[in-house]
Amino acid sequence: MIALLNYINLSTAKATERAKEVAVRKTIGARPFQLIRQFLGESLFLMALAWLIAIGLVLTGIPLFNRALSTHLSLGDWGGWLFLACSFQ
């Protein structure tokens, strides 16, 4: 919850800088489609990067979690990978 509030706070603080950037790009002659493509591209890139980091952390953390709690969790079955693939969309 704290991370979510922190993200909202940082996004709000960056909004004024982004508004200035959009104004400058419009003045230079950027079309609305170019601005939409830029913002969607940045969002998709950050989402993919966060997803890859999360997958790496999960794959690294599962053995530690299994040892600490004496369990046997794995992503070796199709259900785990299917869940991860669906969560990306």
Strand and helix layout:
Blueprint lengths: L1 H27 L3 H38 L8 H11 L1
Summarize the structure.
By secondary structure, the chain is mainly alpha-helical.
Write up this protein:
With 89 residues, this protein is mainly alpha-helical. The chain has two domains: 1-30; 41-89. Helix content is 85%, strand content 0%. It contains three helices and no strands. It has helices spanning 2-28, 32-69, 78-88. The chain is elongated and about 60 Å long. 0% of the residues are buried. The mean pLDDT is 83.
| Continuous helix count | 3
Beta-strand percent range: under 5%
- By helix and strand content, what is the structural category? mainly alpha
What ranges have pLDDT less than 50 throughout 5 or more consecutive residues?
none
Characterize the overall form: elongated
Helix content: over 70%
- Compressed to H and E, one letter per element, the order equals HHH
Mean pLDDT, to the nearest integer, reads: 83
Q: What is the end-to-end distance?
A: 22 Å
- How much is the radius of gyration in Å? 19 Å
- What profile does the largest beta sheet have? none
What oligomeric state do the depicted chains represent? single chain
- Tell me the number of strands: 0
The domain tally reads 2
